[in-house]
């Protein structure tokens, strides 16, 4: 899907085809930078900051990032195979046409993130704040969303078949517009979904 130029942050500098594989990016600060074709394979970071940056066709594969901020960034055609993100902040960021094989996120704030139509099969997302995230059309069969704050999130057209949703806030989940066959929920989740269906749980 073509990216709407109006949604892209206005960048001021650009980095093209750089080799940052295996680099330690800890403490680095980047603002309004356009990254294109950058290889970040096995790169690591603790406390790095990227604000209003655009990443196009960048490879984050096998990277590990801790307490790093990627706020209001846009990722287009990027690869996140076997990436680990721990306690990271991605508020307002947008992912388009990215791949997420063996993607693992623990903790952090992903509120207002757009993962519309994302291929999140078997992704593991635990203890993350994802308030008002856009997961419409996401392919998340057999994914794990454990103890995730999904209040106000959009799931229209999402496939959550066989997903583990235990401990998550599902108040924004309309079971009529999402596929939930075989999904695993707990009692609280069952009450929330029943409420979305207009049922009176006693």
Automatic annotation (TrEMBL):
Signal peptide: none annotated. InterPro entries: 5peptide_repeat, Pentapeptide-BTB/POZ_domain. Gene3D superfamilies: E3 ubiquitin-protein ligase SopA (2.160.20.80). SUPFAM superfamilies: Pentapeptide repeat-like (SSF141571). Pfam families: Pentapeptide, Pentapeptide_4. PANTHER family: BTB_POZ DOMAIN-CONTAINING PROTEIN KCTD9 (PTHR14136). This is Uncharacterized protein YjbI with pentapeptide repeats. It comes from Catenuloplanes indicus. The lineage of its organism: Bacteria, Bacillati, Actinomycetota, Actinomycetes, Micromonosporales.
